[in-house]
Amino acid sequence: MDAQALQTIVGVIDKRMTRQVKQYLDICARCAICKDACHQYVGTDDLTYLPARRAELIRQVYKKYFDSAGRLVPALYEARDPDDALLDELYTSCYACTGCRRCMYYCPFSIDTQQIVAIGKAMLIAVGRGQEMLGQLADAALFKGENVEMFRDVLVSGFKDIEAEVREITGDPEATIPVDKQGADILYVALAGAHSIRPAAVIFHEAGVDWTISLFEAANYGYFFGDPEKARLIAKRFMDEAKRLGVKEVVVPECGHAYRVAEIFYEAWAKEALPFKVSHILEVVDRLIKQGRITVEKGRIEGRVTYHDPCQIARNGGIYEQPRDVVRALTDDFVDLIPNRAEQWCCGGGGGIVAIDELRDVRLKSGSKKVEQLKASGASVLACPCENCRLQIEDLNEMHGLGLQVRQVIDLVVEAMPLPRSASAS
Amino acid sequence: METYLQITSIWGVYLTAFVFFAGMGVRIYQWATTPRSPVPFGMFPKPATRGGRIAAMLRDTFVAPHSAQIEPRMWTFAMLFHLAALAAFVGHLRLVQEYPVLPKLLGTEGMNSFAAWAGGIAGTLMMVAVLYWIGRRTFGAFKNLSVPEDYLLLGLLLGVIVMGNHMRFFGDVHAAEYRAWFQSLLLFRPHIPEEIMTSNVGWSLGTHMLFVDLFLMYFPFSKLVHAVGAFATNLTRSE
Amino acid sequence: MPGAAREKGSTMSEEIKVDLELDLKGLLCPLPMVKVSQNITNVPVGGVIRAVATDPGSMADIPAWAKSTGNEVLSAEKQGNEFVFLVKRVK
Predict the structure, then answer these.
(1) Residue A334 shares a structural domain with residue A234
(2) Of C28, C57, C68, which is closest to A136 when you measure between CB atoms?
(3) Is C73 designated active site?
């Protein structure tokens, strides 16, 4: 490690240090109660994935450069320079972490490993060791944001294709996917994938919602990559769009981290109060069902249905009941996974890990607890918001022969709606 | 003997008091002067009110119900240790001032016997908990997580407890003599009473205090600052 | 099989020599972009990937990825329900 790189890393720790993280690093007792909380450590038995160990790597550097006792007697804390070996382990442990914060839930000091890992990612990025794929995905999103006119035609043409499908499903030749509609009530910021747009468009159309679709996607690879500035700019694309259109509510898709970024982080990042509210699509769907604005019929979904709480929506986003209420409106045979809500096991697919090829083995092993839960539930249908969770659980489903239908919740909703072609909606 | 006791139990105590309070002060100052993250780190469900947040923080800090749920054995030993340490601390307050009511109620003999039982139980529990921690850390699957700091602290703690227990179980010196010594420290007219120096536990007191001095001097520079920091971090949990 | 890559040495009907074919049909965005990105190092510099996706979002994703990584999309066409890309590795 040359002096320049060392200085860069130390500078980044200094710049990114917050009171909370400093307290975490100072007080962690290495009691390892987190060992049974982390799906990755439980699934792999590999110390690299023990939450306290992830923090320890950053703490070793912190102790050496930011703590008088660590400077004086580094051996006592195993304080050391961030050499290649440390950075290699840091890369794996930080980018494998799904940020589910189940360890924080059980920690006697509520230490937020995700925030410590964020400093680890910043250290890696500073010396050009950030995860390449996540970096590329973030840059592509930024490029789209800066050159929206370049992509407008393809995007609008894509929306037209989906619109045609929505017309078939609803049987209404007038159904539209409004783009750039000034003064609409809702701006729906979907994912790039049509699957996140089609069912939402059907629901909004049937409920008579005054909505418009965003030209941007809610997914935020800047956040996964670990660059808060990129993350802010990626979210800013649709926040600015919402301000320009003067909407009352920004609605993000089922995607977990997108909700947390938009609802919990963005105002603090941007240092501004948003003039509209931010909602998760399932909050809106729950509202529409309870207001009687859409009709769903029980009996159309066959088999026992269970629900997976994506960490970023549930433990980290506070949305526990609305999705359950939605699912309960669709079926009488609903069963919760055990444990659930704040104690829900992370499926292992969060934090961008599904896009990281070299961590595939760890990811699949880390799903062992989720597989146990799913088997024990006896369900044949899994209502599963969050793209990352679904990708992971689809893999687990195939690998362990669970025979589950892993479905977006809004797909199930559309399926339960009495529509001319609802069966083809998924 | 006199020199040993003067170093560990008189001048060492003054030095320790200075290092401990200054060290903790510096640590808290460092926390207070580092800017908070503007992003809320809280997890859900969150208490709705300020009072609710504080109640949750106190519950999480003093009872750690979630930790109890996930590793009951570790939680049990940790609880035993902390409660026994609290009891021992309360017991040691007799060094400052004899309890107001209890001695009159129990009589001198009764009070000595009560102190012997209470102190003996607390000391034993602490020793058992520390031995459990050493074992768990040394033989657990996560043993490579540990660093020398962990063992140093447990070693010092074991030293404090073992020597304390030695005085408790094998000494024939009672509270009055120790109080004479400790009050002399508080009044800055330090001396070691003859009864302690000529007793069979003079060495034990010296060594007990040696470990106490080292333990408390190291305290502010170690992970033990969780004693203060845990209140802040458990409050962050609901922000 | 979605996402499966197979080596291909021969030319397509177009003039351009394709080094790698990627079947990304059925993959949801942003996975088509991820797969192209993961496979770009499997062709030599100057080499071309032909990728076929079904998610319309890929029509914006893949060109945006190429621009921001300094690669080149030679063509992006809608053919029926499929989206066909020719992506050239520039560096």
Answers:
(1) no
(2) C68
(3) no
- Confidence label for B98 from pLDDT (cuts 50, 70 and 90): very high
Question: Residue A213 domain-assigned?
Answer: yes
Average pLDDT over residues A304-329: 98
A146–C contact, CB cutoff 8 A: no
Q: Mutate which of B53, B233, B234 to test chain A, going by most A C-beta atoms within 10 A?
A: B233
CA distances from A77 to A14, A33, A57, A373, B134 (A): 19, 20, 11, 39, 17
**In this predicted model, what pLDDT tens digit does every residue of A228-261 receive, in sequence order?**
999 999 999 999 999 999 999 999 999 999 999 9
SS3 content of chain A, % helix, strand, coil (to 5): 60, 5, 35
Q: Of A97, A130, A163, which one is at a domain's C-terminal end?
A: A130
Identified catalytic residue from C29, C34, C43, C52: C29
Beta pairing, strands C20-24 & C48-53: parallel
Q: How many domains are contained in chain B?
A: 1
Tally of CA atoms within 13 A in the half-sphere of B145 that contains its CB: 28
Which tens digit of pLDDT belongs to each residue from C2-53? 444 444 444 444 578 999 999 999 998 889 999 999 999 999 999 999 999 9
- Same domain? For A59 and A96 the reply is yes
Chain A positions touching C63 (Cβ under 8 A) are 150-151, 154
Interface-testing mutation among A132, A133, A136, A391, with chain C (most C C-beta atoms within 10 A): A136
Q: Taking CB atoms and an 8 Å limit, are B45 and A320 in contact across chains? A: yes
Identify the domain containing residue B120 by its residue range.
2-236
- pTM for the full model? 0.94
CA angle A387, A391, A392 (to 5 degrees): 120
Instruction: State the nearest Cα–Cα gap between A348 and chain C, in angstroms.
Output: 18
**Min Cα–Cα distance to chain B from A340, Å:** 13
CATH number, residue A50: 1.10.1060
Residue type, B189: R
